[in-house]
Amino acid sequence: MTATLDVYEDLAEVIAEMAPREVIALKASPARQERVDFLLEKNREEGLSELEKIELEKILMLNRIIALAKIRAKRLLANAA
Q: Dihedral sign, CA of 26, 37, 71, 16?
């Protein structure tokens, strides 16, 4: 297994141990969101370097993992109600 996959698995484990409301409250820091916005805009306007493409892919993968965790947390809360 690659180091990148290990990081994603570690993140999944941390999120799994969080309370559902904590998971739902997760969001990117303002600095991270600004970087994502910059990369997305640059990609639309002029394209990204290879390193920037890799960076954006990693960020988008993390966003997907967190989005799935939020869906799960919302279901858990709905079922508990």
A: negative
CB 2 within 8 A of CB 48: no
| Count of beta carbons in the 10 Å neighbourhood of residue 55 | 15
Q: Find where tokens 């997305």 sit.
A: 40
User: What is the domain count for the chain?
Assistant: 1
The domain containing residue 51 runs over which residues?
3-80
CA angle 12–62–56, rounded 5-degree value: 160
Q: Which of 68, 78, 75, 80 is nearest to 15 (CA)?
A: 68
Give the tens place of pLDDT for each residue, 19-78.
999 999 999 999 999 999 999 999 999 999 999 999 999 999 999 999 999 999 999 999
> Is the pLDDT at 1 greater than 70, yes or no?
no
